[in-house]
Each structure stands twice: as structure tokens, then as C-alpha cells.
Amino acid sequence: MTEITDRMDDRALRAVNAIQVMNHWMYEYARELNEDRDVDLLYAPPGIDAHLFCPASERNLNRDPYVFCVGRLDDRRKNIGLLLEAYALLPEVVRSRLRLVTAGLAGPPDSFWQRAEALGIRDRIEFIYRPSRDELIALHQKASIFALPSEEEGFGVVLLEAMACGIPVVSTRSGG
Length: 176
Description:
Elements (H helix, E strand, L loop, with lengths): L1 H14 L2 E4 L2 H10 L6 E4 L22 E7 L7 H10 L2 H4 L3 E8 L3 H10 L5 E5 L3 H10 L2 E4 L8 H8 L4 E3 L5
Parallel strand pairs: 1-2, 3-4, 3-6, 4-5, 6-7
């Protein structure tokens, strides 16, 4: 599917008169695709509301610590299985105190939960379906660490949200 959509994207990028992109990688890609044409190309990274996504006034890392991940977790490009395998590799003494909390509009696929069960860590993992904005902010603010295991990412706004909340992030190298 990605090969087909990539061709469709390329065709569209060569047919328009103006392009707005959110990362340097896409800017260079669109510029190279259109080097023989006069195209209005604008780099405009997305932002977040730092008044909403901000550190909590009080934070206790010893109270219910967790690794947090939010996104479209049913999308294979989000690579949620990598996070599961990394979490499983944590020493038992750490894992017994540190939960894995995920959230989003769609949860991890059944294979994720089956693998978690096989690894004996299913009871340490929670999925929160469609958290409200306030719930999402609180999840960021209370997290011990934020993890984003994506294979492909346009920009990673969730990383900005976590950092704005004062949470350390771990992420894969993935384009944007």
C-alpha cells in the first residue's frame, strides 16, 4: 500500500502550484521533485499550545510511574510492537514498578495484546481510548517518560506535547 500511496503523493506534489510542508525532510523532497518547475514551497512546522501543555505544578515520580505513548496505535507505522518488546526487556525489578500506558483513537492490534500475554506482561499495560484534551494533558504531565516508536512520522507533535509538559522523550529516528 505504501508504494501505491507514495506514487500518488509524488504525482500530486508535481501537479500543484503551492506546497506547505511540516518538516525539513519533506521540504527537500518536494523541492527535488519540483526542481524543474516554479512552485511556491513553504516550510511551516506545526506547534502546540504551551499554555495547555505545560509541566504540572506538582509531580511525584514515585507515585504510579509509567511510560506513556499516544497515537494511532493500530497503524503499523507507529510500530507499537517495538515499544512492547523494549518494555519487556526492562529488568523485572523496574517493570514491576513501571507501567506502560498507551492512549489514542485506536488501540494496538490484537497481535500486540497476544504478545503481551505471551511475555507475561499484559497486566502491566493499559490502553486509554480517546482521552479528552484534559485527560491527555494529565497523562503527559504525570508520565515518567514518553516513548514514540514510529517507523515513519510526519512531525511527531506528541513529542512536542510531552516535552512541553517537562517529560523526557525517547523516540526512533523517523523522518520528521
